[in-house]
Amino acid sequence: MDEPDRLSLLLNLESDVTASSAKSSKASHIKTWTEYHVLWFGIHVPVVPLTMESLRGVAALFKSKGYRSFGNYLSAIKQRHITAGHQWTQQLDLIAK
Predict the structure, then answer these.
(1) Three-class SS of residue 1?
(2) What pLDDT band is residue 13 in, cutting at 50, 70 and 90?
(3) Is 55 exposed, middle or buried (0-12, 13-18, 19+ CB in 10 A)?
(4) What pLDDT is recorded for position 51?
(5) How many whole angstroms separate alpha carbon 89 and alpha carbon 14?
(6) What is the reported pLDDT for 23?
(7) pLDDT at 38 over 70
(8) CA–CA separation, 57 vs 36, rounded Å?
(9) Contact at 8 Å (CB) between 76 and 29?
(10) Mutual orientation of helices 20-41 and 70-83 as an angle, nearest 10°?
(11) How far apart are the C-alpha atoms of 96 and 1, rounded to whole Å?
(12) Which of 4, 60, 82, 96 is the one with CA 20 to 30 A from 14?
């Protein structure tokens, strides 16, 4: 099997990992998380990797706005954090809970 065939098969697999109906909501979750991150930290602090400080700051904003589905937003940004090659540490896990 040549490289273009392998690449095509991998792209096909990746496109099915997340249901198309969930892709837009995940993008929306990331967008909202990013907006809150910028509101708290400004534009010069990267959203990823997550830190204990960034997680706490953004979580405080979500709580102040009355979000009940914070876990969905956290799940989306956690996935972004991990797929970017960063470790999800026990400290982040404790803060997230």
Answers:
(1) coil
(2) confident
(3) buried
(4) 97
(5) 25
(6) 63
(7) yes
(8) 9
(9) yes
(10) 90
(11) 43
(12) 96
